[in-house]
Amino acid sequence: MSATVEPTCDLTKLDPILARYPAERRSLVMVLQDAQKTYQYLPRPVLERIAEALKVPRSHVYHLATFYKAFSLEPRGRHICTVCLGTACHVRGALRLVEHVERRAGIKAGATTPDLELTLETVNCVGACALGPVVIVDGEYVGSATTTKLDKALKGIVKGAVEEQQA
Amino acid sequence: MIVNINGRDLLASPEETLLQVARRNGIPIPTLCEHAGLEPWGGCRLCVVEMTRGGTGPVRVVPSCLQPVEDGLRVETHTPRILRIRAVLLDLLLARTPDARRIQELALEHGVKRTSFVPRRDPDKCILCNICVRACAAVGADALGTAGRGAAGRISLPFGDDASACVGCGACALSCPTGAIEMTDRGSERRIWGRTFQRLPCPSCGAPTLTREHAAHLAGRSGLPAESFGACERCRREQASRLFLDLVGK
Amino acid sequence: MAKRLTVTPSRCIGCRTCEIACAFSHPVGAPAGPPLPGLTRIRAFPVRPPERGIPVVCLQCDQAACAKVCPTAALQRDDQTGAILVHEERCIRCRACVWACPWGNVGFDGVRTQVYKCDLCGGDPQCARYCPSRALEQLD
Amino acid sequence: MTRRITDAAHLERLRAELQAARDPARSAIAVCAGTGCVAYGSRKLAAAFRDAVTARRVDVEVRATGCHGFCERGPLVVVFPSRIFYQRVQPADVEEILDRTVAKGEVIDRLLYADPTTGRKYVHEDEVPFYAHQHRLILGFNGKIDPESLDDYVANGGYRALARTLTSMLPEQVIEAVTKAGLRGRGGAGFPTGRKWALCRQALGNPKYVVCNADEGDPGAFMDRSVLEGNPHGVIEGMILGAYAIGAHEGYVYVRNEYPLAVERLSLAVEAARARGLLGNNILGRDFSFDIQITRGAGAFVCGEETALIGSVEGNRGQPRFRPPYPAQSGLWGKPTVINNVETWVNVPLILDRGPDWYAGIGTAGSKGTKIFSLVGKVNNTGLVEVPMGATLRHIVFEIGGGIRDGRAFKAVQTGGPSGGCLPAEKLDLQIDFESLTAAGSMMGSGGMIVMDDRTCMVDVARYFIDFLLEESCGKCVPCREGLTQMSHLLHAITEGRATDETLASLEALAPVVQDASLCALGQTAPNPVLSTIKYFRDEYLAHIRDRRCPAAVCKSLITYTINDKCTGCMVCARQCPEHAITGERKKLHVIDPAKCTRCGICHSVCKFDAVDVR
Predict the structure, then answer these.
(1) Cis link prior to B80 (omega < 30° from 0)?
(2) Structural domain includes residue A100
(3) Do D516 and B152 touch (CB under 8 A)?
(4) Cβ–Cβ contact D323 with B under 8 A
């Protein structure tokens, strides 16, 4: 289960983040969040370097990173499609949207396409319940989402998202 | 401080927990994740008891391993409700770890022969009681933790395979209540967590003693040189008797 | 003050009765039938030819290395007998005590996975009682 | 203009200046900038307004405001001074609004809110039924102030309570006021805030901490978000008052990872407050210093529970701890800590500004003040509803919510999030407060209120909540981790038609053990949705078990899709069906092969002729 070590994992990008917080356990969650924003995910060398810098056991950093859903230890796609499965969205058929993207992109929710183009995630509520069902594609909210709206938002990201339909 | 357990008034000191008072007075309360030498965890919930403050308030179900004593507490350790909770908890654990002998025994004691739930697919023996993680932290190695969250959680090394912090002392394997952690000692080698440790040979008789990493670890914590931990007990006793001999001078 | 177990090595005749007495007074439960003799906490080494031995037993040190190194305070001194006792329920079996005792007086029972050491038999050490040559005595 | 406010008098002078500078007659356009409206493009709309105003060189202020609460009708625009309320405004409407409404005061009919059932149009914001029946003490601020402007907050009475309190009240008096007002925690359990503060003040140990719990993990609840995005200074002022009351000098706001805009607005507000001397050392020149740090959650619902939140802020896995000791005695790093929800904090300045007696006059005997509910689901007007405690479900769902969508029948309303329960039609006249909801088998919780119609399957809802909680369980204790695993198996068996009466019995036997033995509120309340749906909708469970039928036609394994005679043979469904289970020639009646059909529902959603039946 060890994450593949990226040759391109440039640890120097971590230094400004580590400088921003005191080198102790309480900064761990925030350092991980900033690191995830920089590297798009948390590669192993980054976690090891953070453990060393904050003087916290490696097991603590790793096991904390696997606890919170915001952190991903696997490389994430260039594009992120997040389908909200909150109660309001659920009763308005959000599950169908997840299945739709799963079919289109050929991956299960929580996974990333082999070509690292798209990560399909679900979240348990993003707080835009009045617009349910909500899908967020690369930070852009799609309110009252339908399969057709979703395909438009995923155009160019998921091959065959739209073309296949016209065929 | 007086605590009434099962109708008996028992003397208790403020920093004690209900479980300690009960144990001191021979009242049997089952536990799994409690370990007297480690921080209480409160995860298995087997040690729950019924408690009311001053005999009048609402009846609350609390874990006796964590509930501190309070003056005037009335506690019942074997009410039908509590026995039912313990039986269902063991029934649930049987579904999680069907072939863990300790769970089978405890379940049988509570009238549960087979689980009435859906057994876990390809189960191991780990009940996630966290004793190994706490023991490893007490030893000071901090090599273990729980990866993942909720029902998908499992005890693991960092990154699943990084045993660099492990000193091979075996505390986790030997204090695991269900024997879920494999440790094999063969000759001077010890295999645990997928890593092979070399146990230092006793300088005088060559018998395998502790692992090199554990010796270095103990040295680090005690300030003594690592070599001082290397000899086996038998030889150290022999050296002690020689020392006495020199003292005595005959 | 509790009576102390004293060792006078010159009187030891190497008969090792003390080892037998110790083993018998720490019986271990047998899977079936009566309890069996346990492991001895005292060893008399025949280091002095031809017959003299030197008994070595836990000295219940004031600055006990075993108690200091124990991460879960499972080794604590009993006020009455002055002996450092193993609180089995607190022990996480990391065996740091076994390797820390400079005299090797802390053992580990691999079968029952338990640490064992001399507990002065609760204040009446049997080795002293059966030692024929008063090499081991219990004096104030 | 970051001049530091030196003392209370200076603050009042500034307030007077600001209020005088405001010309109520001046025309202004308020564009809602809450997450909902932003999702519908309100940022582009506001930019379009600004460009048009500069191009025309007219004296019209374009102001971004916090969430008005009626997100479904976003982007929302309110034209001042007339307070004309437009909904679903697009950039294309900018020119027309400036020409007709701003310049000549004419009302643009098509942009007005029309009541879906009666069709009647409403011009002013406070006439719209959704707003008219509300009592917007807290949300009222959202419409008026620009969340990124401290001056706006001050001009609307902001920090007056703080100034008066710091100069004329002792900490104990602040606690007394909050107790007398009867404020109870808005996080879900409703613990009296005054008592929590008193416990913390008396607890030994320093330093003390105040924490704002903005984790808002309940799905379907977003009132904390809109308060943080719309009125961050209200929360800050509340926290400063709380800190003064218990003697704390450090505060933390734990904001959900899924609320980036809230974090951004709050950070701006904290920096502004520091720059102006309202945070940091010697606040308003008094001998009291207090500062706030913002820590972001990282995606764990359980961190809404107090001790798990503390663990998360301390840099650990968010796993709850046993209580006692309660956080008021030993919380963050073992020090006395008060943790209150966003909505609780934002109530505090109101109490100290307008007095505890005024506050206690609102609500019921046991539950004082107002409560914000997020009314969502199958209701016409979805959005945030602030009503006094004691309002009835019927009042909220029908009078404010405008009844059920597409004229369908009301079936149930789910309150209290995953810890709450589902209440049927017979409970519609229940006066909502902490005790009444708990008695009915549900819970106040954070205020999520999800309305369900006859097309919602209650067994599926119970399964949804159990699966949600199973995924969010921290996994520390056996009854929750293993109990929810088995409850999920049982519920899946029911929804997939593999169940017997025994399944229902064992579900009802397992639930009380999970409630009794679980370590924290997540596990203790997890069975509530299941127990309340069994209690009020037992016949639906039996339909699934005995007749293998899902009355609401939701549970996939129990429903079949068939094409009726309305089919025109347009072939759309056949083309879209991913399993190619639909056959038929052009203009001929099509047929679905039940063996291949995976009941994904696409044919039903794409068919324009309502020719696909689901039974």
Answers:
(1) no
(2) yes
(3) no
(4) no
The pLDDT mean for chain D works out to 93
Q: Name the domain count of chain A.
A: 2
The C-alpha atoms of residue D383 and residue D562 are separated, in whole angstroms, by: 36
Contact (CB<8Å) B241/C94: no
Q: C60-117: what CATH class?
A: alpha beta
Residue of B nearest to A44 (CA): B159
Dihedral Cα C94, C95, C96, C100, nearest 10 deg: 180
* Contact check, Cβ <8 Å, D489/B45: no
Choose which CATH entry (3.40.50.1000, 3.40.50.11540, 3.40.630.30, 3.40.50.720) describes domain D158-360. 3.40.50.11540
Please provide residue D213's backbone torsions phi and psi, each rounded to the nearest 5 degrees: -85, 100
Contact B159 A67 (CB under 8 A): no
Domain D370-456 has CATH 3.40.630.30: no
Q: pTM of the entire structure?
A: 0.92
pLDDT in tens, C94-134: 999 999 999 999 999 988 899 999 999 988 899 999 999 99
pLDDT on residue D167: 93
Helices (H), D169-211: 171-181, 193-202
- Radius of gyration over alpha carbons of chain D, in Å? 26
Separation of alpha carbons B218 and B196, rounded Å: 19
Contact A28 D256 (CB under 8 A): no
Contacting residues for B172 by C-beta, under 8 A, at least 6 apart: B131, B132, B133, B135, B136, B144, B181, B192
3.40.50, 1.10.12, 2.60.98, 3.30.70: CATH of C1-57+125-140: 3.30.70
Prediction ipTM score: 0.92
Is B36 close to C89, i.e. CB distance below 8 A? yes
Please check whether residue D482 touches B, CB under 8 A: yes
Interface of B with C in 104-143 (CB under 8 A): 135, 138-140
Q: Hey, what's the torsion of the CAs at B157, B159, B160, B161, to 10 degrees? A: -80
B45, B61, B149 ranked by CB distance to D477: nearest: B45
Which chain C residue has the Cα nearest residue B176? C92
CB C16 within 8 A of CB C44: yes
pLDDT tens sequence across D49-92: 999 999 998 888 898 999 998 988 889 999 988 889 999 999 99
Smallest CA–CA separation between D517 and chain A, in Å? Answer: 23
- Best of B159, B161, B172 to disrupt the A interface by mutation (most A CBs within 10 Å)? B159
Secondary structure, 3-state, D42-108? HHHHHHHHHHHHHHHCCCCEEEEECCCCCHHHCCCEEEECCCEEECCCCHHHHHHHHHHHHHHCCCC
Range of the domain at A49: 11-65
* D259 interaction partners in chain A (CB closer than 8 Å): 127
Give me the mean pLDDT over the B41-58 stretch. 91
Q: Which two tokens stand for residue D336?
A: 């006395």
Give domain status of residue A167, yes or no. Answer: no
Å between D324 CA and nearest CA of chain A: 23
Q: Which amino acid is at C105?
A: N
CATH code for the part of the protein at D459-546: 1.20.1440.230
Which sequence spans correspond to the domains of chain D? 25-130, 158-360, 370-456, 459-546, 560-614
pLDDT of residue D117: 80
Tokens read off for D535 = 């209690």
The structural domains of chain B, ordered by start, are 2-78 (3.10.20.740), 131-244 (no CATH)
Domain ranges of chain C: 1-57+125-140, 60-117
Cβ contact B44–D478 (<8 Å): yes
Question: 């102390």: which residue's tokens?
Answer: C4
Mean pLDDT (chain A) is: 87
B180 is written with which tokens? 């879920």
Mean pLDDT of D278-291: 94
